[in-house]
Write a structure and sequence with these properties.
Shape: globular
Radius of gyration: 23 Å
Order of helices and strands: HHHEEEEHEHHEHHEEHHHHHEHEEHHH
Helix content: 40-55%
Structural class: alpha+beta
Number of domains: 3
Largest sheet: 5 strands, antiparallel
């Protein structure tokens, strides 16, 4: 299929010219399927292509999942304009989402309670008020709903965030002294969000997120169980990918890469994957901790899909940032940075292009058989979407972990 050929070429692309050449060569396919390509690179941005550098230099906290926050864009209109030696003008819609930790920090900041990273947090807040950027409460709601936080508690916490995004910067140079720009606007948004929470307007999104979380929980349980083996990193990586192949019938690239880095760098001080620190030893708290970690992995999958939506019909592209101060979450995002995303609106086909040499990984651990046409065909024909099937896997893996705890306790 042509889309597979495009994906393979994009995986090898290194420069803006490479990406442009690929899109130009396949411009009929891009035109027919309304293809949109977003990519980033370390080198200076090519002035011939539309670009964006919002929050570049603040990648530690403003996570876009990409290698960096310097974006370039290609679609049928841009290709057409370039063929006419015309500079394309595009509209970009930006939003920022956040987790409960951000909510906690913002509540503490505006009630004069001290906390770690306060100075860094204040600098980030100024970056937010200096840019015209929308607020996406979805990830915050998903996290709190998944933890069964009371509705009143969620609304109370989110009120501080809504107030911050309605500050009038002209009222003071100091954030803590700024007034709300429009009281009616603030009250209306608070009412809108509150009603959405009470009516569970986000239920459909939550159900989809919850399904993702089950899969991530399964993968994490298997990752930790395999870790308990004293065998080689190669053995562990092969065990995990075989599990994905035979039980999940899908290769989860990001999760496989993160696990391989975890297995590789267990004894490394500098490259240690801190995300797994609390589950190195299996105990009574392990399952609950793995569920929380599954939320992090599910969040990343959710953020990937965000590039396919278009909340503003006047915008050509939508860039979503996730604001976090969680070093473990930030690290697993950075272990699998993206260099490109291509989305074909007509077919709803999203392709994620990581800045990772998958072939090198496959050769290093003898995984090439899993990327063969035969293996791909097997996964496609055997893939199970049944939630009941996932429930069975969860029950079996949880029983294995509980059995491990009992053995350790004897």
């Amino acid at each position: 299929m042509e889309i597979d050929i495009i994906t393979e070429k994009l995986q090898l692309a290194k420069t803006a010219k490479n990406f442009l050449d690929i899109a130009t060569y396949h411009q009929d396919f891009f035109k027919k399927n309304n293809g949109k390509l977003i990519f980033t690179q370390d080198s200076n941005i090519d002035s011939h292509l539309p670009s964006s550098t919002m929050f570049h230099g603040y990648e530690k906290n403003f996570k876009s999942l990409f290698l960096n926050n310097k974006f370039m864009f290609i679609d049928k209109k841009i290709i057409s304009d370039m063929s006419k030696n015309k500079k394309s003008i595009i509209g970009i819609d930006y939003s920022v989402s956040f987790d409960t930790q951000f909510s906690s920090f913002i509540e503490r900041y505006f009630t004069n309670k001290r906390f770690n990273q306060e100075k860094v947090f204040e600098e980030i807040l100024y970056k937010l008020v200096d840019n015209n950027i929308n607020t996406d409460y979805t990830t915050y709601l998903l996290e709190n709903i998944s933890k069964d936080i009371a509705t009143n508690g969620i609304i109370s916490n989110i009120e501080h965030i809504i107030r911050f995004f309605h500050l009038d910067t002209s009222t003071s140079i100091l954030l803590k002294n700024m007034k709300v720009i429009n009281n009616n606007s603030y009250e209306n948004e608070l009412s809108l969000i509150s009603n959405s929470i009470v009516s569970r307007k986000y239920q459909v999104i939550y159900d989809d997120f919850n399904d993702k979380q089950k899969i991530m929980y399964i993968i994490l349980m298997k990752t930790i169980l395999i870790y308990q083996s004293k065998k080689s990193t190669k053995y562990k990586v092969n065990q995990l990918i075989e599990f994905m192949q035979s039980e999940l019938h899908t290769l989860y690239g990001r999760e496989l890469i993160v696990a391989s880095k975890f297995y590789e760098n267990l004894n490394s001080k500098d490259d240690k994957v801190i995300f797994f620190n609390k589950v190195l030893n299996i105990n009574e708290k392990t399952l609950e901790r793995l569920k929380n970690m599954a939320w992090d992995f599910s969040l990343i999958r959710h953020l990937e899909r965000a590039f396919t939506i278009n909340p503003n019909e006047k915008a050509d592209y939508y860039i979503s940032y996730f604001l976090t101060f969680d070093n473990g979450l930030s690290q697993i995002m950075d272990l699998y940075p993206l260099k490109a995303i291509v989305y074909f609106e007509s077919t709803k086909d999203l392709r994620i292009i990581p800045d990772i040499d998958v072939i090198e990984l496959a050769n290093k651990y003898d995984l090439t058989a899993y990327f063969s046409e035969e293996s791909i065909k097997y996964r496609n024909t055997q893939r199970k979407d049944s939630i009941t099937y996932y429930h069975n896997l969860i029950d079996n893996l949880e029983a294995e972990i509980k059995s491990f705890i009992q053995k350790e306790g004897q």
